[in-house]
From TrEMBL:
Belongs to the type-B carboxylesterase/lipase family. SUPFAM superfamilies: alpha/beta-Hydrolases. Residues 1-29 form the signal peptide. The chain crosses the membrane at residues 722-745. Gene3D superfamilies: alpha/beta hydrolase. Pfam families: COesterase. Residues 31-48 have a biased composition (Polar residues). Residues 31-62 are annotated as: Disordered. InterPro entries: AB_hydrolase_fold, CarbesteraseB, Carboxylesterase_B_CS, Neuroligin/BSAL. Coiled coil: none annotated. This is Carboxylesterase type B domain-containing protein. Residues 167-691 form the Carboxylesterase type B domain.
Length: 750
């Protein structure tokens, strides 16, 4: 009897334990459905408030200061000339393209008055020169205008000493041509759709930029308008009286900005097209979350921004011959994210056959920030972002629906944050194993959603690019100085970096890239590599070494890696290192050659009217030096030569020439000043090998990032399933224990 009592007591304790854990499981399942649950990836200390999002401030007042887009195609308010115009979310996208010129009131100048930021301040008498240009495309008629240029790189005298009637070149300009349907309403977080066309498109003003953080917008930054309806391109073509038998080479510009900010209007290509016989195209594409938010499944696969670029490239390939461009000679170029995008388009299945050449300025498709390979990293970024905007992350479907239907473009565009892993929050996502929506969406098919067929590095290894591809690339000597310049903490310290700050920054880098397998070993390796050993405590050298560290990691090593892979596969590769500054800017010595310094040189800024550029970059014409003008001429000539001939210097330009890089002897043009540059070999090979070859062995992985611990999506049915099976298991154990107890009791009675 005592044994039976003991057995019953033991079973009772076990049953209590089982019921306790079953209750916990049931409670956890309820919590999983509660949107107030806080993810360990959330930023800040606030929790979700259904009425006001996170924290106390409601999201109805995002504090987003921007400039609303107003149609300037006629120089008047759109309501005056176009009763159908309504740029709100309810207007039909095609209403904008019903224009009939015969109904319009004749206006002076170019369609409603002279625009200095479009045509320049110095202008000829509008009565004496023809203004309008008409082109017929597959999508309808396009009306552009002629811009008359007064200065040029080989002028003997500067234009302020010349009469304004002396026109040195004329370029045909078409601004704000839509290459896809507006990605609004149902189009948000979906691939671009082919445009339906128009009767007459008056392409006489820039289209609005895509939504982005307010710190990058405004008159001083050059971005005056933003709108979710932003998929526009611009075309600059040399003025010719009739079509050419064979068109000009096409230079397709993709702006940089870390996939977060930027706009096509920041690259006025009048001089490049007008004097160097190329047709230049610049494009907008979706940025930030609107362009790259990915949940890793069919609810939002991502890559909308890079798919925008692919559709713009297809539009250009199909229509550029109408603008005297040669579709078989398209050169992609751009800085940073634009360079990385060019490399991705070079190997992507849907675009590779359209790309004949690539010029990568300070960027590489093989950079860690160029593609997010880890699906869970992309998911975590999207969840943190959604939580910042007060959206439920209970499931990917709820997350996307909240962002699509419940948040404005100003909230989505202005929600800037730093991810837990990686340099930038948004980038194209490796989507090969993603599930995508089936063919049940209007205007979309399953084939529209995927961009990648394999990782970019694998595509290059297996030669998945056009057979005649050519590649040109360059970096500056102080690439990452802009990161220090934008750091508020360093700015308060007059950009002085102490040894303690240097150590802290290395640890931040280690943690940001989640080197969890051997963080201390990684820290010691990086510190050893970038300590200035002759004087380790010298703050000037510490700052210089920190700039070198970030430059090598983010730009130089990936640039070196892709160049070597292409050289090994007999692709013609031309390399340069920019080691001189723009003298007119008078930058401090530690950032005299920053990231994308080529921008002002390639746009011909020393020869352009200042009105073409953002206020913060405007310089008086007499501030440009002869060295600045020579460098601008050199870059425009070298880039256009590459587009024409596949060689940046078939003949010397101001005493400079490039050599083809060879395996084991990576020749590059070290650009100091014109007549003072030289061909060198193997730029920063030790530093590049440190990041590409050595550091992965210290970490124990093949890539320099490690995926974060990931919370899995809670689907709506999962909590109920967990509760059901927990209680079922408890009941089953109760029955088994009861049977055991009865058997023990019966044995004890005997």
């Amino acid at each position: 009897m005592a044994a039976a009592a003991h057995a019953f007591h033991l079973v009772s304790h076990l049953l209590g334990i089982v019921l306790f854990f079953a209750c916990i499981a049931g409670t956890s399942s309820q919590d999983a459905q509660n949107p107030q649950q806080r993810s360990r990836y959330a930023s800040g200390s606030s929790y979700y408030n259904p009425r006001g999002g996170y924290g106390d401030q409601p999201h109805s007042e995002p504090g987003y200061k921007t400039y609303f887009y107003k149609d300037r195609r006629y120089g008047y308010q759109p309501s005056y000339l176009d009763p159908y115009y309504n740029r709100g979310p309810t207007r039909a996208p095609e209403d904008r393209f019903h224009y009939d010129v015969t109904e319009r009131i004749p206006l002076p100048g170019i369609l409603g008055g002279w625009r200095p930021d479009l045509q320049g301040r110095e202008r000829p008498d509008s009565k004496n020169l023809e203004r309008d240009v008409f082109v017929t495309t597959h999508y309808g008629n396009v009306q552009g205008f002629k811009v008359h240029l007064y200065d040029h790189p080989e002028a003997r005298h500067r234009p302020w000493s010349l009469p304004v009637e002396r026109v040195t070149a004329t370029v045909n300009v078409f601004l704000g041509i839509p290459y896809a349907m507006p990605p609004i309403k149902e189009g948000r977080f979906k691939p671009p759709r082919i445009h339906k066309g128009w009767n007459l498109m008056q392409a006489v003003d820039w289209g609005p930029a895509c939504p982005q953080p307010s710190q990058y917008t405004g008159a001083t930054k050059g971005i005056r308008d933003i709108d979710e309806d932003c998929l526009y391109l611009n075309i600059f073509s040399p003025n010719v009286e009739s079509g050419l038998a064979r068109g000009y080479p096409v230079m397709f510009y993709i702006h940089g900005g870390e996939f977060v900010h930027g706009a096509s209007n920041l690259f006025p290509a009048h001089i490049l097209a007008g004097f160097y016989n190329v047709t230049v195209v610049s494009i907008n594409y979706r940025l930030g979350a609107l362009g790259f938010l990915s949940t890793g499944d069919e609810n939002s696969p991502g890559n909308y921004g890079i798919l925008d670029q692919a559709m713009a490239l297809r539009w250009v390939y199909d229509n550029i011959r109408f603008f005297n461009g040669d579709p078989e000679k398209i050169t992609l170029f751009g800085p940073g994210a634009g360079a990385a995008s060019a490399g991705l388009l070079m190997v992507a299945p849907r675009t590779r056959d359209m790309v004949s050449k690539v010029i990568a300025q300070s960027g590489s498709a093989l950079a860690d920030w160029a593609v997010i390979v880890d699906k869970y990293r992309a998911q975590n970024t999207s969840r943190v972002y959604a939580q910042m905007l007060g959206c439920s992350i209970e499931s990917s479907w709820k997350l996307v629906q909240c962002l699509k239907d419940g948040r404005s473009i100003y909230e989505l565009g202005n929600a800037e944050f730093q991810p837990h892993v990686g340099m930038f929050p948004w980038a194209p996502v490796y989507d090969v194993n993603f599930t995508v929506p089936r063919d049940y969406y209007d205007s979309w098919s399953a084939s529209d959603w995927h961009f990648f067929s394999e990782e970019p590095e694998e595509s290059i290894k297996t030669r998945k690019y056009r057979h005649d591809i050519m590649y040109m690339a360059g970096v500056t000597t102080q690439e990452a100085s802009f990161i220090l310049y934008n750091n508020a903490t360093l700015a308060r310290n007059d950009f002085i970096m102490t040894p303690e700050m240097f150590d802290q920054k290395i640890w931040e880098l280690v943690l940001r890239y989640n080197y969890t397998l051997n963080p201390w070993g990684v820290y010691e390796a990086i510190k050893y590599m970038y300590t200035y050993w002759p004087d380790p405590n010298n703050v000037t050298h510490i700052r210089e070494q920190y700039i070198n560290l970030l430059s090598d990691f983010h730009y130089v090593a990936p640039h070196d890696k892709i160049a070597k892979m292409l050289v090994e596969r007999n692709v013609p590769v031309f390399l340069y290192v920019l080691n001189t500054t723009i003298e007119a800017f008078n930058l401090p010595f530690w950032r005299r050659v920053p990231h994308d310094l080529e921008h002002m040189l390639l746009t011909g800024a020393p020869f352009m009217d200042v009105e073409f550029f953002p206020e913060k970059l405007r310089l008086r014409r007499d501030m440009w030096t002869d060295n600045d003008r020579n460098m601008s001429h050199f870059f425009m000539k070298a880039y256009s030569n590459f587009a024409h001939f596949g060689n940046p210097t078939p003949s010397q330009i101001l005493g400079l020439h490039f050599d083809v890089a060879k395996f084991g002897q990576l020749k590059y043009l070290n650009i100091n000043t014109t007549y003072n540059s030289s061909i060198l070999i193997n730029y920063r090979q030790t530093e590049s090998a440190f990041w590409s070859q050595y550091l992965p062995t210290v970490i124990g992985r093949l890539v320099p990032t490690y995926p974060p611990v990931t919370e899995y999506w809670w689907e709506p049915a999962q909590p109920l399933q967990i509760a059901f099976w927990s209680m079922s298991t408890a009941c089953l154990l109760l029955i088994v224990m009861s049977a055991v107890c009865c058997m023990l009791w019966r044995n004890a009675k005997r």
